[in-house]
Design a protein that fits this description.
3-stranded antiparallel beta sheet; DUF4177 domain-containing protein
């Protein structure tokens, strides 16, 4: 997104003498062209001319409205993110540390390692899986004899 800064200057009040400018309109256009070119050298782009009111003092206690002819210019401002004086974003972890890796996927068990449905239904005791605790044997009352 482009951002602009603006500059407003008064339009010339009278024309300038020039070799080819014979009429008052020609002389005024020379003066206006001079102002536009002067601002363009500094990177300003002409936007428009406006006539705006201004309330000014008139005499000791009076006020009157005066209209001013203004020329409006703009130029692009370097955005905050791309400016040379801005700081570069820093990583969330120290440069010496490596970033956390994604977890490795769990390998699929081969078909022979997975329990068959018939093992559970036939009343057979399943073999313990490595890492799991073997349940204790059922308790029976001691026989007296």
């Amino acid at each position: 997104m482009s951002q602009f800064e603006y500059s407003v200057i008064p339009a010339p009040l009278r024309g300038e003498k020039a070799k080819d400018a014979k009429t008052p309109s020609d002389r005024y256009s020379v003066a206006l062209t001079t102002e536009l070119n002067r601002m363009a050298k500094d990177g300003w782009e002409y936007v428009r001319a406006d006539v705006l009111p201004s309330e000014e003092r008139s005499g000791l206690t009076g006020r009157s409205t005066v209209y001013h002819n203004l020329l409006v210019f703009r130029r692009a401002v370097a955005s905050i993110a791309s400016g040379p004086a801005t700081r570069q974003p820093q990583p969330e972890y120290p440069a010496a540390a490596s970033p956390m890796r994604a977890p490795e996927p769990v390998p699929a068990l081969p078909q022979a390692a997975s329990p068959a449905t018939s093992d559970h239904s036939a009343g057979a005791t399943p073999e313990p899986v490595a890492g799991e605790a073997t349940p204790p044997a059922p308790r029976t009352a001691p026989s007296q004899g």
